[in-house]
Amino acid sequence: MGKEISMQHGAEWWKAVAHCIHDGILVIDKHEIVRMINPEYTKITGVTQHIIGKPLSAYRRGAKLPQTLKDGKIRAGVYRKTEDREYMVDMAPIILDGEVVGAVSVCKSLTEVDKLSQELKRQREKVETLKSRMNRAYEAKYTFEDIMGKSDKVKKAISIAEKASASSFPVLITGESGTGKELFAQSIHNKSERSGRAFVPVNCAAIPSSLLESELFGYGEGAFTNAKKNGKPGLFEVAHEGTLFLDEIGDMPSSLQAKLLRVLQEKKLRRVGETKEREIDVRIIAATHRNIEQLVHKNHFREDLFYRLNVIRIEVPPLRERKEDISILIESQASEFTSYIFEEEAVRVLRSYEWPGNIRELKNTVDYATCMADNEYITVENLPSFIVKKGEKNKEESETLQEMIRRREKEYIQKALSTCGHDIKGKKKAAEVLGISLATLYNKLKKLNM
Ligand SMILES: Nc1ncnc2c1ncn2[C@@H]1O[C@H](COP(=O)(O)OP(=O)(O)OP(=O)(O)O)[C@@H](O)[C@H]1O
Ligand SMILES: [Mg+2]
């Protein structure tokens, strides 16, 4: 019959267990006498069986295990070096019926620790690669160089934004739809010291309010049915050390406004369904096309959150208040693929229009016109008719008689040139069509800056 495990065999059985463990083990009793070591302990430390039955401190000067016996505290990862051996030791008291009756020391050779640290390094590198991949997925592409415009209003907005990028204060960008708020937000991030990290845009108006909370703050394990097994980090966590762009902040539901305020104040967040707090370091840039002061006044937006966000305010002006920028914007958009030339009259029509959709609308209009043009010259006929009608109306209302005559004259000449051509042959033909001499045509072209 083989040996059975019984109370009598208990000590021997545990000894056998200790012998097959891959870590070094040394046990002392409450009088600090060594009661057991396993072969691995000898292998790692060089200490042999002769120590058994002897007081530990007599043979191992500087041993911390007697201390564990006294204070009953666990010590983990203590580094030890004796002659040419290096190892790490974990120490713990042995407690029986609530009393410390001994202590155990478990040691790992540093070659083993070395292997683990190599593995840790590999894992860290993996994490870094994944992080940088994620950063690339959340990359801001625009910089201040992409913001076209020479008007005082735009220059002022750019100057404030450039100063804002030197800090991590919250920024609130306001301005009508299509004025370039996102362009400003991205440029600030790209010029800031956070540029190597993620720029995470969230459209607070586009995500259903029931989802927005977990999108922003993430959720813990089992927070709700269909939740991912290990939970999911929210966009705040994704933006850690980077920038979170809260677009359309004016549309954020009020229950979330309170939570957002708390996170911004504490710089800590709790995932939905979790109690654990996580520290976050995120720069907030918020934007809205709404009149946010009015939202605050009507109690649709929390006043305390407004003040929290409104540290640096950037007001992006509508296009109709900076018409001097229209030519530059047309030029940059029209030269994106091929070079197009907008005839002066077409530019005048575009300048007379009010641009409710701002730069987005202007860009689309330019794209439309280049698509409609028969050659590289873009005329009034190539513009969308509703813009021409509205532009003409505005123009006529504010025109003197002389301006009107000059405008009509230019329109006629331009029309003739675009049908006959802009080369010498075309100009000769255009003069004929217009019923003037070629010399008069040249004079007029010069006088009318054409
Ligand atoms: N100053 C500028 N120079 C060149 N392009 C610009 C400028 N401002 C805006 N744009 C372009 O106009 C378009 C609209 O800009 P953007 O999306 O930043 O506007 P927005 O203010 O965020 O609009 P919305 O309120 O509708 O979200 C984009 O294609 C952007 O690149
Ligand atoms: Mg936007």
Report what the structure shows:
The protein has 450 residues and is of the alpha/beta class. It has 4 domains: 10-112, 2-Layer Sandwich (Beta-Lactamase), CATH 3.30.450; 144-317, P-loop containing nucleotide triphosphate hydrolases (Rossmann fold, 3-Layer(aba) Sandwich); 321-398, Helicase, Ruva Protein, domain 3; 401-450, Arc Repressor Mutant, subunit A. The chain contains 19 helices and 16 strands. It has helices at residues 10-19, 39-45, 56-59, 65-71, 110-137, 152-164, 181-191, 209-217, 235-238, 254-266, 292-297, 303-309, 326-334, 344-352, 358-372, 385-397, 401-420, 424-434, 438-447; strands at residues 24-29, 34-37, 75-82, 85-96, 99-109, 171-174, 199-203, 218-219, 232-233, 243-247, 268-270, 277-279, 283-288, 312-315, 341-342, 377-378. The strands form 5 sheets. It has a 5-stranded antiparallel sheet, sandwiched between helices. A 5-stranded parallel sheet has the order 7-10-13-6-14. It has a two-stranded antiparallel ribbon with strand order 8-9. A hairpin with a 2-residue loop joins strand 4 and strand 5 (99-109). Helix 6 (152-164) packs across helix 7 (181-191) and helix 13 (326-334) packs across helix 15 (358-372). The longest helix has 28 residues, at 110-137. The protein starts with 9 loop residues before the first helix and ends with a helix. The structure holds adenosine-5'-triphosphate (ATP) and magnesium ion. The site of adenosine-5'-triphosphate has 16 residues, from helix 7 and helix 15.
